[in-house]
Every structure is written in C-alpha cells, then in structure tokens.
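USER: Write out one fold?

ASSISTANT:
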Amino acid sequence: MTNEAIADNFSLLGKLMDIHGENSFKSKSYATAAFTIEKLPTELTEMEYKKISAIRGIGETIAQKIAEQISTGKLQLLDEYITNTPPGILEMLTIKGIGPKKIATIWKELSIETIGELLYACEENRLMLYKGFGEKTQQNIKESIQFYLGAQGSYLYQQIENFALNVEAKLKAFFKNPHFYSTGAFKRQLEIIDTLDWVTTTAKKVITDFFTGNGYQIITDSADYSSFKGPENVTLGFYSVAEHEINVQIFKTSCSEEFLAEWNRTIGLDANKNYPTETAIFSSNQIHFIPHYLRESSSIITKAKENELPRVIETEDIKGIIHSHSKWSDGNNTLEEMAKAAIEQGYEYLVISDHSKTAFYAQGLYPEKVLAQHEQIDYLNEQIAPFKIFKSIESDILNDGNLDYEPDILSKFDVVIASIHSNLKMNEEKAMMRLLKAIENPFTSILGHLTGRLLLSRNGYPVDHQKIIDACFANNVVIELNAHPRRLDMDWRWISKALDKNVLISINPDAHSIDGFADCRFGVLAAQKAGLTKEQNLSSYYLQQFESFVAEQKGKR
C-alpha cells in the first residue's frame, strides 16, 4: 500500500460518509488525513506506528486504519460503505461538478442511482427544484455527464447519427472515393451503436496507413476488415472489397445473424456474382426488397416472398404530439408556446400530459392545479381552433397499482397516461401486479414507458410482455413507444407481438420542451424495425380520428 493508495482510500471514505449523512467531523477527519498523507515525503510503510500516530492530522484512530491497510491491503470500513452504496452513486463521484453533498441530495431526495438517470433528470429540469441546484449548475452537470458517457464507447443512435454522417462525407472527400457505404448496426437503425461500419473499395492498407498516421489505435485487423479508435472514442470499422463485391458485402453486414442464417439456408447468396445494386440480390431471387431496418427476424423473409411487407410509418405520418410536459409541471415552455410550436410544425393537436401529484420532484399537479390548467386549455382552444389541446395527465402508478387521483379528478381528463416513476427495483411479480392493475383501471388510456428503462444506464424492471399485451387488448389500452432516445420503451422487439393482438401503439415524444417534439423521429425509426404502420399508431390519427378515440376512451369509464 503506497501513500497514494492509502490517501485515495481515506478520501473516498470521507466522501461516502458525507453521502450517507454521517457526522461531518468524522468525514472531514478522513479527508484531512488523505491530504496530509499525500504530502508526506516518506512512505508510511517505512515508518514506525508511533511516528505515524504522531503526525499532525492523523491521530490514533486513523493511524490504526493506516496499519490495517498496510497489513491487509484493505480498509474494512471503506468496504462496508462501498457495499452499502449503489454502484451508480460511486460512479457519480467521477463526474465534474458533483460533490458528495449534491450526490446525497440526488440519491436520497430524487431517488436517482445511476448517471443515466441523472442525465434524464437534468433533461427534465428536476434538479432545479432542489437547494444548491440552479439552472447553471444543472447545465454544467448535464454537460459533464454527456462528456463522461461519450468516453465509454457505446452511443445512442441519436447521439452518433450526425457524427456518422459527417465522417462518411469526410471519408469520401479525403480519399476522393464515393464508395463508402454505411452498414452494420447504424444501417439497421439499432438503438445502441458500438461501432460505425462502412463498406469501401479503398484498399485496406491505405485506410490503415491513414488512421494510424493520425494517431488512431487499431482495434481489429483481419483479412478484409479493420477498425480504429481515435480521440473521439468512437470505433470506426471498414470492409475493404473489390468493386463487384460491394453490394454482397453490404447485404451480409447489414442484417442480423438470424436473418442471414435463414437467407443462406433457404435462398443462398452467390458471393462471386456481380450484383449492380443491393436490390438486385432480392429481385434475382424473386423476393420483394427488404429494407435494412427490417432485416432482423427470419420470418420477414417469408413475408417478403409473399409480398406482404408492411408499408411502415414515416415521421411525416405523426399528426399530433401526445405526451408532453409544460411549465405547469417540469417542462421548459408554457402551454401557449408549445401549442404555437406544434401549429408551426404542422401538427393538428397537442396532448398535454403534465406530471401528477405524486411526482413531487416534477412539481406534479394537485387537483386545484389540474382545474386551473383545464381553464387555461379551454381559453386557449377558443383562440387557436381548429388546432386543439387535449387535457391529459401522466398519472403515477402507485405501489399498489392504483393511479394517484380519485375518480372524480381522473374523469376530467381526455386521456390518462399511466406510468411507473417510483420504486423501480421490483421483481417481476411486483411489477406485473402494478402494471396489470393500472391497465385494468377504466380511466387508463395509454400505458407509458412500459419497463422504465433508460438505455445505457438502467435496465427496465422485469415484465411478462405477452401478459401486458393481452391485458391491454382486453382493456382497450394503448401501449406507448416512448420516443425519447434514452427510453424507446416499449422495446421494438415486442411491438410485432402487440400488433398481432391488434393492440394500438402510440409514438410519443415525452417532450419536456419544444425541441423535444423532434424526438418523434427516433420513435419512428424504432417502430419501423417492428413493421409498424401509420394505421397502427395512435399519434398518426388525424384530429377527427383522435377525437373519436377520446370519446371511445371516455365511454369505457
């Protein structure tokens, strides 16, 4: 144990004691000891115990802790604190601008335990509600987290999209070669991207010399594939092929293993044939072209053979913004501002779904605020017709599965979105009890972000998707595809099961600002992978259709 290691242990111990709310004198004594030890000219392992305990800023108690570390290589007290601290809380200590006191507030008062959850809270303006967190502090924390997450090497599709397009344009310009074609996970519109891949006719050695000459590290080096990582911490991969092999290589590298295995088993692929386009691979086998985003399950090949591919939803098919938050709770914009922006962007209606009363951290609406908001909506609707604002709420699903308003308040909403926001650490039995009871509530119109997941930071609570789908069908409840790039929940892998049961999906941005409307696009990209059509999506309903939906929902109460 070097002085540096011992000092680091004491420094961490002091911070964890502060986070856990221990006596500030004790935590400060360990921080002081860490500072003192770092400045010592002699290693503690070379000093007698009496001399260590006599050092100013050390003392008998801490000297015993030093002796423990020297003899065992561990500090038991520190290990106990680490055991009782969620890993995500420990990770927060690495984020610039967040000290132990702020982390204690984040953990104890906001019930946030991961960096991803904290970033999401910043995006929803939740930190500003607490002492010590102003707008500037929140923004600094948000930027620090984004920088930190960018250093981990995996990215949301939304995070990496512009970077990928810019890199491709620069590659084509620098190598004076138009043959750089995106492939792999990015081409398939997967929600998480670990590597950006291209197929190119540029020689492998030329590419390798370029990247290594510019300080990039070689990650993979095989016969026809090489990948590199540079200061941006993004892995860039390249398949170098002859010109006649381009379309075969794009095909092979832009589909899932399951899809490719089924294709090879039932159809086969002539790797030596010169296909003029990728489409020609399909037409030469009398099969309807399958877009890259649909090349996931083997069953899609059968549908393509029978010309039964869906005409999938497009971003322009979204006609209304469902699930949005205003300044009435934790949004950035007023109702007037949100309605004006929606009108300017060509939408026909806005479903305002502010947080309910249990969401105290988001300034959730108590009944009197609900009534006041409804008065404002009525007033605005008179001014902005034919555009319409619908009265909605994102009602918390409580621990017992009930919604957090009485029926007399729930009955005043056009649409009720039921979501779980608290006590997320549940087993499947508990999660299913809460969800099924909420789905069976006659006031529930839409089930919000089904599993509560946050991509790259928090797994969702376990659920039986098929039972949820069956219950939504039985109770005429829509399932949300929350389009926030960090949620994309429900997972697109289950949407086809919902469609098989004729359960309606709703692509909703969960917008906390006007800018959040744009997230609908990322929901659409995910929905395309499931083969969702505009007819199967609630937010694609025209105003008159949506009004009929609202009337139907009210009729089941």
Q: What stands out?
A: The first helix runs from residue 3 to 19. The chain has a mean pLDDT of 94. The CA atoms of residues 153 and 233 lie 6 Å apart. The two ends are 68 Å apart (CA to CA).
